[in-house]
Design goal:
It is a single chain. The protein is an alpha+beta fold. The protein has a single domain (2-126), classed as 2-Layer Sandwich (Alpha-D-Glucose-1,6-Bisphosphate, Chain A, domain 4), CATH 3.30.530.20. The protein contains three helices and eight strands. Strands 1, 2, 3, 4, 5, 6, 7 and 8 form an eight-stranded antiparallel sheet that branches. The longest helix has 23 residues, at 104-126. The N and C termini lie far apart (28 Å). This is Orotate phosphoribosyltransferase. It comes from Nonlabens marinus S1-08.
Length: 128
């Protein structure tokens, strides 16, 4: 299952946005106020949103100033969340891509909550 957020613009340069996203504690700022957020280490965190189970994410890989890749740390749901960053004349633009391998029933159940989650993250990036 491959889901994409809308492309959003931010005033942050690609370097600033990359540095922000590679510091996983900053994801708390991108989530809604009522979301559960717990830092589990320098490169991993747990979050929970209404209607979704709690999920552990960790920094898996990055390409300086252009891509940040997070991956699930649990056994139940294996997926990656990639943020691609591109330079603009003033600031940068970003798009989030969720990629996971799920059976048809699971994919149907999580598609709505995951799309909502991607939208919340994109909106958070846009407000930076």
């Amino acid at each position: 299952m491959n889901l994409e957020s809308r492309v959003v613009n931010t005033q942050k340069s690609p370097e600033e946005l990359y540095n922000f996203l590679t510091q996983v504690e900053n994801f708390k700022q991108l989530l809604p106020e009522d979301a559960k957020f717990e830092l589990l280490g320098d490169d991993k965190f747990l979050f929970g949103l209404k209607g979704m189970p709690e999920i552990k994410l960790g920094l898996k890989d990055s390409i300086k100033f252009t891509k940040v890749i997070l991956g699930s740390l649990g056994d139940k749901m294996q997926f990656t969340l990639t943020c691609s960053i591109e330079q603009l004349a003033t600031g940068s633009q970003a798009q989030l891509v969720f990629n996971g391998d799920f059976n048809a029933v699971m994919a149907m159940m999580i598609k709505g909550p995951i799309n909502k989650f991607l939208e919340q993250l994109a909106t958070g990036i846009e407000k930076l």
